[in-house]
């Protein structure tokens, strides 16, 4: 009897050990998330975005796009027979807040993958941690080149900064036939610095002379000193690789100084029309910037999304909303094609994905950056006007 009892105790102990061993696979040593975040009828996917603070306009738009994608996916039966449970945290545009929120998603919520972050600095901080944990992560809009270099499980749905800088230099030379350029960039921002450096290098190769480069720090609102220096050089174009709030200030002050050079920009310009009052709209008239998509596209899926977005949120969708939608759709497709919520399986499926979304057809290159064209947009009398899709 004692032997039988001892055998029963040992068997129970072995079962308990096995159960403990089947916990969350998102370990610091890179274990696979086989069952974590996929319990019951749901698959947990995390989200990180600045929903409040200085860059909340981007975070809210991405989050709205992601939520619309989740709603559609779930209405269509979900993924692997389960509904997606999307858990998002506000990181306020701060890298430390982003890492704290990431840890909560992984350690407490047990998500299988993450859509986020939104701006480059928090995204890089989170990507470095996700690479250690082997958590599949896709950023909708983090453009700094080194983000995906953090690890083989880090992807993005948007262009990288160097691509945009090189593309706009190519456009200035080959399409606009410009010969001289000046640059104003934000020395406090990696996004702005990356674009500036890429544009300057490409311009030199293309025969465009960069006659003046001016920098400014975070919080600057008076740009007249920089603009006065640029005016003395009389460049054909001014490349302005900054976000739309600063674009509006700089363009209006350039107008006040009588500068007539044509402005060029990148995807951070999206939203600038809303920042310029009607009396100063001519300050940005004729400017060109590259973007991830064109709202003038005749793609029925894009037009349906834009209509539904406006109906749901009472405003027009920006490229950040469109990219958020595509990022979540790509992740869902990868999970479906992996046939599993295992971290390594999702990562492999993402790397090999062939995806068509609202921003067009794309695959990933060896650095997990999307291979796709850019939409060239011009500001024309207070409206965004699609010009063409362009490849450098």
Automatic annotation (TrEMBL):
Keywords: Amino-acid transport, Signal, Transport. The keyword Transport applies. It holds the Pfam family Peripla_BP_6. Residues 42-382 form the Leucine-binding protein domain. Transmembrane segments: none annotated. It comes from the Bacteria. Residues 1-20 form the signal peptide. Belongs to the leucine-binding protein family. This is ABC transporter substrate-binding protein. It comes from Anaeromassilibacillus senegalensis.
């Amino acid at each position: 009897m004692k032997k039988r009892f001892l055998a029963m105790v040992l068997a129970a102990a072995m079962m308990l050990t096995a159960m403990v061993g089947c916990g969350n696979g998102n370990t610091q040593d890179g274990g696979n998330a086989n069952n974590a975040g996929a319990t019951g009828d749901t698959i947990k996917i995390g989200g990180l975005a600045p929903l409040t603070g200085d860059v909340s306009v981007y975070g809210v738009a991405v989050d709205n796009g992601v939520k619309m994608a989740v709603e559609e996916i779930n209405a269509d039966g979900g993924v692997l027979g389960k509904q997606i449970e999307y858990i998002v945290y506000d990181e306020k545009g701060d890298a430390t807040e982003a890492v704290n929120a990431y840890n909560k998603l992984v350690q407490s919520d047990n998500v299988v993958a993450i859509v986020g972050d939104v701006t480059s600095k928090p995204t890089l901080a989170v990507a470095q941690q996700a690479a250690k944990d082997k958590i599949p992560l896709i950023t909708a809009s983090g453009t700094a080149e080194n983000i995906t270099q953090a690890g083989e499980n880090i992807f993005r749905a948007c262009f990288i900064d160097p691509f945009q800088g090189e593309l706009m230099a190519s456009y200035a030379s080959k399409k606009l036939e410009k010969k001289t350029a000046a640059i104003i960039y934000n020395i406090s921002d990696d996004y702005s610095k990356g674009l500036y450096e890429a544009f300057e290098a490409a311009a030199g190769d293309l025969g465009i002379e960069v006659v003046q480069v001016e920098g400014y720090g975070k919080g600057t609102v008076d740009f007249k000193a920089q603009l006065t220096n640029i005016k003395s050089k009389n460049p054909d174009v001014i490349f302005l690789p900054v976000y739309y709030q600063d674009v509006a200030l700089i363009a209006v002050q350039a107008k006040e100084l009588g500068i007539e050079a044509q402005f060029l920009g990148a995807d951070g310009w999206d939203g600038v029309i809303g920042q310029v009052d009607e009396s100063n709209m001519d300050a940005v008239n004729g400017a060109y910037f590259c973007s991830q998509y064109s709202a003038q596209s005749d793609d029925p899926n894009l037009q349906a999304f834009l209509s539904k977005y406006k109906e749901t949120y009472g405003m027009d969708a920006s490229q950040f909303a469109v990219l958020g939608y595509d990022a979540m759709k790509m992740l869902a497709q990868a999970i479906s094609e992996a046939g599993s919520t295992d971290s390594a399986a999702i990562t492999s499926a993402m790397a090999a994905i062939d995806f068509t979304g609202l921003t067009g057809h794309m695959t990933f290159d060896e650095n997990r950056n999307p291979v796709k064209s850019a939409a060239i947009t011009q500001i024309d009398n207070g409206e965004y006007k699609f010009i063409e899709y362009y490849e450098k």
